[in-house]
Task: structure prediction
Amino acid sequence: MDKEFYKSLKLKTLSDIASGKITYDKLDNVLQEDKEIVLEAIRHESFVYYDVPRSLKDDREIVLASLKKYGLMLEFVSDNLKKDREIVLTAVKQCGFALKYANKSLKEDKEIVEEAIKSDGWALQFVGRKFFRDPQFLFLAVKYHGYAFELLPKKYKKDKIFIEKCIKKHGYILRFIDPKLRLNYLFLEKLIKINGHCLKYIPDVFKNDHNLAILAVKQNGLSINFVEGDLRKNKEIIIEAIKQNRESYDFVDISMKLDKDVKAAFIKYSMI
Result:
């Protein structure tokens, strides 16, 4: 192909890719083998690496650019590059789940696994075994993403102190603690005092418990959203919720919004 003609064609192709007029997979094979075109395509598309010719698959610049755009592309890079710390770190920063495809040795790398769980709590299932013996690391994982608690070893789901630390930010981990602890009324009281939203996840047997509802709205008035049955019309619970957060009035049962005591509480605590 004439050099000047190719130069002109290349410039037009780069422009068309940038404007979205054409996608990489529709290009002629010769153009697909041009590194500059590949990099431009990666800037505008997520899955270019699938179609990159074999001659460019191990090009570090192309691989890094691809992983910055879509970390899960790590699955398709060579085994050698899956051992490359910079490559893997780039992938997990974009998508923590990419840790699944890293070389085993890098699943023991603290910085890499911390970046992975920071991005996606489900990445916890792929970290090296040593991290499951580190409560500080596991707390960090749950702090970033509460649903990571579901992946913890059973002993942490029975550890009251560990649970109390985790529950502060994520009330919904109550669903995953040891079943016996979920039925421990005194422990439930303690957790609800820490995070009123726990009320949403208590066992059905306690759903109509007046004391737990009061504790929840005292801690967070918006927990009135999770009060059920006749308790939603309980004046004491409603007023305590408004006292803690006036915005909870928006979620009061409509039949109680015009109650004189409820309205008086709303006016009183709106002025504070």
Remarks:
- The CA atoms of residues 239 and 264 lie 9 Å apart.
- The chain has a mean pLDDT of 95.
- The radius of gyration is 27 Å.
- Residues 3-19 form the longest helix (17 residues).
